[in-house]
From TrEMBL:
Pfam families attached to this UniProt entry: DAO, DUF1667, Fer2_BFD, Pyr_redox_2
Database matches in InterPro entries: BFD-like_2Fe2S-bd_dom, BFD-like_2Fe2S-bd_dom_sf, CPE0013-like_sf, DUF1667, FAD-dep_OxRdtase, FAD/NAD-bd_sf, FAD/NAD-binding_dom, G3P_Oxidase/Oxidoreductase
FAD dependent oxidoreductase domain residues: 4-348
The protein's name in its UniProt record: Glycerol-3-phosphate dehydrogenase
Originating organism: Spironucleus salmonicida
Ranges where the FAD/NAD(P)-binding domain occurs: 505-813
Gene Ontology MF term list: oxidoreductase activity
Residue span(s) of domain BFD-like [2Fe-2S]-binding: 385-436
């Protein structure tokens, strides 16, 4: 029997448990969620308030300052995130000064450390804030609410408090002298019950006291928006408007983790589970916040959420004991700040004899915050970075699991894995695999947060619930020396010796994608010592998961899958005597002494600082997240970027959903429509905001038309519905001119998965850090014709401009590598000749040309419209050639003979009149190559082919003839591989098969399991409608 049962493990429940652990009384805590801080505490602003901003003569006012001091004191003991940044209440005019003076008098009476700021002092302290005056309260600060609650609970649990998570209280009855608490899993007895149930404190109180009016929770929603870390210097103190009514207003908050939080709104709601965001809420938050910080940019938001405050109708905390039932309810702001004192008050009702010495359990220090070299000495797994956006190490993830994380959100809140600008697009699958291994569960069992929020669709049979697997396997730190350093080189030992000796390389390339490998190859071919730093375990970058075809047609004159193309590029790179260092994460670059210092964390080596005479950044791009396209609604499982879904299917064999909606018609969205279909899902449609398709027409043909998947133009998703997993989306038509959705004409479409293919963003941070200029129109880094940003720093590939074709990225990398090598031998002034474009050109790269004869220079232009066009160059209107533009924003490359370029270059595009198509002819889009020629086939009376036009090569004629007789297709997929370095092997058909056999062929291939080792080109299966199945990459044994 327990002395006390605490219901709820938010901040108040955790602090109550901590206080009870100081007694010798048996205590149990029951929490409906799988982990602490998954309720109101989870969606908290994290402000540690002072009493100046609290209503006098209330319990809130009485407790807030002592709670402030206790949170600060415990932060050093328990190692949770806290900083005393101060708070400024800003007024906008003289008329508001009397209310501010009332606040000053209140602060003085409480002996708070304050300062009145006039306009000049306010501007000096916070240059981005506008206001007439402000009150600086230096005692205020910010805390990480999840870390604080988790640390407090861990300490309580370590000192004897028993936790029962994933248990929902169903009834509370007084049986004699004891309380009987029933849950969905058991029945428990205790002398005391402490109600810390937050939003659901009213229901718990009713169960026990049978009094419907004792606690009356009036839920209030508040939307919050998180900005990118690039905005971290926007404000340094918490910025408040002068409060009015029940709300403290819209705030601008510098969090302990380096982001800026904006919000909240304050809206009464009847639904305690409604955590959806709204378009109106977002508009209001940013409109109000810009009154304080006008430079605040809504486009920098990377995430958003809604918290619900458990406000009691009394407007104050409820702290009471009735018949040994204790209410700690109505815990609205400043409830987080007051929670340590509320916990003491709750425990005081039970016993004041709490003198037992307890052992505090501090949180593990996160790699990004600590002494990196010291942490790596303690655990070598800190040398492997899992989440690049937040620099989360493998050891950080393991420590989060050791500390109690059993869900992806649990790991996220403890380690920040997935909280960065890509929102888990790169790291989710890796983190899920680590968690699954520690729990001894299949990856399909891993949940986002609560039961039912599995990463894959709930319609897939046989998914165990990971929350029932509470005990994680033990984790043991490893020694750095025990981790293998993964170097690919013709002379591995010599390269490692150079690294150990801090050798200065001629050229260092960041990233081993197509651009990086090509850059390294061309620089090394000119005799330079070249080292490629790659954060992953395999060379190729995104190519590794792009198992579809269409690669290498220009460079290798054959159609390859992504893994095949990557393996050939890697081979070329190594044959040129360049070396590749894997698992090497770059966290800092600096120009030093005419060269560059590149600081990395490398598995098996730890923190290393590399020197280079020239530096080339080929770090690729990231996908635009949900926040980037501003889709409101709930935050359920089942909403993924198309790239993450590609990882799930191609690399792990996990189907993200059964009924899939795809937003965005870029190539990756089209390709994933086909992949989902081949793997057994039903793709309900591809929806595109624009009035035209964004991807290549050949992909529309082979990914959508072939499978009967509809493409809906001028339509977008305006709301996401469902918890804990997505159940539907709201769609709305979009005005083709203003690109604004018509919210009066929405339709609801049921689904269990939404894939976002809404654009790619170049990873240009290194270029910006090294002084690169961002073009205000295109947001691209400006370069000259050598792909040079400045000095001997170059950039190429998708981190310079997003390419439709990997061949284009590789060619750009090749040019950058060659230029880097040549410019080590000679000095060429930065480009001064401007590339000028007309209104039909979206942008050009480069933006300037150099007067140099080192090599020919190229420019690429992105053109705004579809159809036939003429390209004009120079002031004399010289015709450069005709173009056939098959996709909007299509890019075209033009070569300038270097020695002939001696003046500014003008590029103009003239759209030709469209020729009316004979509707009696059959239109066919060729899929043989990325050109995707639109051909017209004239058929005779007997359906014999009389004429084929529109093709640019003979292959088009052959394709059209076969398409008329019987369409044939080939495709790629992945199969399970045992005992290999990876768990999936990408494979492809050796030759095309009838199009109507694709689904059946995919089913047969899915049954196949092979064993490592496998070499690229090996036949793994025969007899698939006359075709063989061959391996697309080499996989060695473990």
């Amino acid at each position: 029997m327990n002395k006390a049962i605490i219901i709820g493990c938010g901040c108040v429940g955790a602090f109550t448990a901590l206080e009870m652990s100081k007694s010798n009384l048996s205590t149990m805590l029951i929490e409906a969620a799988p982990e602490p801080a998954f309720g109101t505490t989870n969606a908290n602003s994290g402000i540690v308030h002072s009493s100046h901003n609290t209503q006098p003569n209330t319990l809130k006012f009485t407790l807030v300052d002592s709670g402030n001091r206790e949170i600060k004191r415990l932060s050093t003991i328990l190692n949770y995130g806290y900083k005393q940044c101060g708070e400024i209440v800003v007024i906008q005019c003289q008329e508001q000064m009397p209310k501010l003076e009332e606040m000053i008098d209140l602060a003085k009476a409480q002996n708070l450390n304050i300062e009145l700021l006039n306009k000049e002092k306010l501007q000096a302290l916070e240059p981005n804030v506008v206001g007439f005056a402000g009150l600086l309260v230096k005692d205020a600060g910010v805390v990480n609410p999840y870390e604080m609650t988790q640390a407090v609970w861990n300490t309580a649990a370590a000192n004897g408090v028993v936790g029962k998570f994933n248990e929902k209280v169903t009834s509370i009855e007084k049986i004699g002298e004891l309380w009987q608490v029933k849950t969905n899993k058991g029945c428990y007895e205790s002398e005391f019950v402490v109600n810390c149930a937050g939003l659901f404190a009213e229901e718990i109180s009713k169960m026990a006291l049978k009094d419907a009016n004792r606690v009356k929770i009036m839920p209030r929603k508040g939307e919050e928006y998180l900005l990118d870390k690039d905005c971290k210097d926007l404000v340094h103190s918490i910025i408040f408007p002068l409060p009015s009514g029940n709300s403290k207003g819209t705030l601008v908050i510098p969090t302990v983790d380096g982001t800026i939080m904006v919000g909240p709104t304050a809206q009464q709601t009847e639904d305690k589970s409604d955590r959806s965001t709204t378009a109106e809420g977002r508009e209001k938050v940013f409109a109000e916040a810009r009154k304080l910080v006008p430079s605040l940019n809504e486009a920098t938001a990377i995430a958003y959420f809604t918290g619900i405050r458990a406000s009691d109708e009394s407007g104050d905390f409820i702290v009471e004991k009735i018949n040994n039932f204790i209410n700690l309810a109505g815990i609205q702001s400043p409830g987080l700040t007051a929670s340590p004192i509320l916990g003491k008050m709750g425990a005081d009702f039970i016993t004041k004899n709490r003198t037992r010495e307890i052992a505090y359990v501090p949180l593990h220090t996160k790699f990004i915050n600590g002494d990196k070299e010291a942490l790596i000495r303690e655990d070598g797994n800190h040398s492997k970075i899992v989440c690049g956006c937040e620099m989360v190490s493998l050891a950080d993830v393991h420590n989060a699991i050791t500390d109690g994380a059993r869900t992806l959100d649990g790991i996220k809140t403890r380690s920040r894995a997935g909280m960065g600008r890509c929102q888990g697009g790169f790291c989710t699958e890796t983190v899920a695999a680590i968690l699954a291994a520690r729990l001894g569960a299949p990856k399909s069992a891993i949940c986002k947060n609560v039961h039912g929020s599995n990463l894959i669709s709930s319609e897939v049979d046989g998914i165990p619930c990971v929350q029932e697997l509470e005990d994680a396997l033990p984790y043991h730190a490893v020694q750095l020396a025990d981790l293998k350093v993964l170097v690919k080189s013709k002379s591995r030992d010599a390269v490692i010796a150079q690294i150990e000796a801090n050798h200065c390389f001629d050229v260092v390339v960041l990233g081993a994608g197509p651009a990086g490998l090509a850059a390294a190859s061309s620089a090394a071919a000119l005799g330079k010592s070249v080292l490629v730093l790659e954060k992953g375990a395999r060379a190729g970058g995104i190519l590794v998961q792009c198992i579809h075809g269409g690669f290498g047609l220009r460079k290798y004159k054959q159609e390859l899958t992504g893994p095949e193309y990557a393996e050939l590029l890697e081979s070329d790179c190594l044959q040129s005597n360049a070396s590749i260092l894997m698992h090497s994460f770059v966290f800092q670059c600096a120009e030093t002494g005419g060269g560059y210092t590149i600081s990395t964390v490398t598995r098996g080596l730890g923190v290393r600082h590399f020197s280079a005479k020239a530096l080339i950044s080929c770090m690729g791009c990231r996908e635009r997240s949900r926040a980037g396209v501003r889709i409101p609604g709930t935050r359920p499982a089942g909403v993924y970027s198309a790239g993450l879904a590609q990882q799930m299917i191609n690399m792990d064999g996990q189907l993200p959903g059964k009924n899939v909606v795809i937003l965005g018609s870029g190539d990756i969205g089209l390709i994933m429509a086909r992949r989902c279909t081949l793997e057994g899902a039903r793709v309900l449609g591809v929806y595109e905001l624009l009035p035209r398709c964004s991807g290549l027409q050949r992909n529309v043909e082979q990914c959508l038309t072939d499978f009967g998947i509809p493409l809906h133009l001028s339509t977008t998703v305006v709301n996401i519905i469902g918890e804990p997993r997505i159940t539907a989306v709201d769609l709305a038509p979009v005005d083709p001119v203003t690109l604004q959705p018509d919210l009066t004409k929405t339709t609801r479409l049921e689904c269990d998965c939404l894939l976002l293919s809404v654009g790619l963003i170049p990873q240009a941070k290194v270029a910006v850090t090294l002084g690169g200029k961002v073009n205000p129109k295109t947001r691209l880094i400006e370069v000259d014709s050598f792909k040079r940003v400045s000095g001997r720093f170059f950039t190429a590939g998708n981190c310079l401009q997003v390419h439709d074709l990997a061949d284009d990225a590789a060619e750009e990398g090749h040019d950058a590598g060659r230029a880097a090598a040549l410019l080590l031998e000679t000095s060429v002034a930065p480009g001064t000749l401007v590339v000028q474009t007309d209104e039909n050109v979206l942008f050009s790269v480069p933006q300037s040309l150099s007067k140099s004869s080192i090599h020919s220079q190229q420019a690429s232009v992105s053109i705004r419209f579809l159809g036939d066009a003429k390209l004009w160059r120079d002031a004399d209107n010289k015709l450069w050639g005709r173009l056939r533009l098959l996709t909007p924003f299509q890019r075209r490359w033009f070569t300038f003979v270097q020695k002939k370029v001696d003046s500014n270059v003008s590029i103009a595009i003239e759209k030709l009149e469209e020729v009316e198509v004979d509707k009696s002819q059959r239109q066919i889009t060729c899929i043989v190559c990325p050109n995707g020629c639109n051909m017209l086939v004239k058929l005779g009376n007997a359906n014999d082919i009389e004429e084929i036009t529109g093709n640019q090569c003979k292959s088009g004629i052959s394709y059209a003839r076969q398409e008329i007789v019987e369409p044939f297709r080939t495709f790629s997929t992945s199969i399970a591989i045992e005992n290999g370095e990876t768990t999936r092997l990408p494979v492809k058909l050796s030759k095309p098969i009838p199009r109507n056999k694709l689904i059946e062929a995919a089913k047969k291939i899915r049954q196949c399991v092979v064993k490592a080792p496998i070499m690229m080109g090996d036949v793994v299966l025969k007899g698939i409608f006359g075709s063989k199945v061959v391996a697309c990459c080499s996989v060695l044994e473990k």
